[in-house]
Design goal:
The chain contains eleven helices and five strands. It is an alpha+beta fold. Strands 2-1-5-4-3 form a five-stranded antiparallel β-sheet. Helix 1 runs parallel beside helix 7, helix 8 packs across helix 9 and helix 9 packs across helix 10. It is elongated, with a radius of gyration of 21 Å.
Length: 256
């Protein structure tokens, strides 16, 4: 285990809340020259149309006060090139908005990323290392170590830390993930009630509306109402389409 991971592990416990754990990770990162840290977790990374979904968990340390608002509520997360880049690789990568190492991001940068590029340059959040953490079910987490106003040669020094920060990022995720509740592990896209999810799940298993009504102990009109509501909330054309969308957003899985 690397020195950074050993130092971090000594200060935390499995299931620890994300914010205090990230504060401790930031203390460890400060010794390497980084001065901001961000962690996010998305049960489903993209919508059915391919748009990035705002994460269920997003915590920041030492970032500008308006950053969380912009990323969570004003659509910046959906056009964040670092997040898009994290979906294309499985290894930690170094990025820079100062003309430094950008091998991963050069493949995805386009005009749509302009709002984020302008913001990070204005706030001088111009260099960082991102650790993508993937799951077999499609979940995506990223651990980000960021430097404000890096020196001209900072990128070269940071590149030598990729493996260590990659290990730290994975250890951080393994520390906080056991503490996530059911809401954190559910996609924020296409919220359905527990009954609507149950009815769609039964339909996905091939049950008719009459059979669904029997299974949930309600009348046929009530079962129909739940299914119609689920179709509407998901923006689906019909029940079959709703089942496909619900499967994509992992809404057919039994709730914890």
């Amino acid at each position: 285990m690397s020195a950074l991971s050993t130092l971090f592990e000594a200060q935390v416990r499995p299931g620890m809340a994300t914010q205090p754990a990230l504060t401790r990770a930031m203390k460890v990162l400060e010794s390497t020259g980084f001065n901001c840290a961000i962690y996010d977790y998305s049960p489903v990374a993209r919508s059915h149309e391919g748009i990035l979904i705002t994460p269920s968990v997003l915590e920041m340390v030492n970032t500008p006060p308006d950053m969380a608002q912009l990323w969570c509520n004003d659509g910046y997360y959906q056009v964040d090139p670092v997040q898009e880049a994290a979906l294309t690789v499985t290894r930690p990568f170094l990025w820079s908005y100062r003309g430094g190492p950008n091998a991963v991001m050069h493949r995805i940068l386009s005009a749509k990323h302009s709002p984020v590029l302008s913001y990070v340059r204005d706030t001088r959040l111009t260099c960082g290392i991102t650790v993508p953490i993937r799951f077999n079910g499609g979940d995506l987490a990223t651990f980000n170590a960021i430097r404000i106003d890096p020196e001209p040669d900072f990128e070269k020094d940071a590149e030598r830390l990729l493996a260590e920060i990659g290990e730290l990022g994975q250890l951080f995720h393994d520390t906080v993930y056991p503490g996530f509740d059911a809401r954190s592990r559910s996609s924020r896209y296409g919220r359905l009630t527990a009954r609507e999810r149950q009815c769609l799940r039964l339909c996905a298993h091939g049950l008719t509306t009459k059979q669904v009504a029997h299974e949930i102990g309600r009348s046929i009109p009530t079962a129909t109402l739940h299914l119609t509501s689920a179709v509407r909330k998901l923006g689906a054309r019909n029940r079959s389409h709703a089942i496909a969308l619900a499967a994509h957003y992992r809404l057919l899985e039994p709730e914890a």
